[in-house]
Design a protein that fits this description.
80 residues, five-stranded antiparallel β-sheet, 21% helix, globular, 2 helices, single chain, alpha+beta
Length: 80
């Protein structure tokens, strides 16, 4: 998935990680109050990370270029 947003990315991750008992997490993006959907499974915390904004602010959160990323703990996400 090259284009999307964190909600559609989380839905894809919930489906692909369904054998690993996934749970949907809602965190705020570091430094903002914008919600970010993540999936926590047995193997770590997965999310759809922004690579490049396609639209100007505030629409940049609706659709962006990104990639899936796995971190081992929620604290690692907050450091990035």
């Amino acid at each position: 998935m090259k284009y999307g947003n964190c909600l559609t990315g989380a839905m894809v991750l919930l489906w692909t990680k369904r054998d690993e008992r996934p749970r949907l997490l809602l965190k705020s993006r570091p430094g903002t109050k914008v919600p970010h959907f993540m999936v926590k499974s047995d193997t770590g915390v997965h999310h759809y990370r922004t690579e490049r904004d396609l639209l100007p602010w505030p629409l940049c959160y609706a659709v962006f270029e990104g990639r899936f990323q796995t971190v081992q703990a929620e604290e690692e996400y907050e450091k990035r």
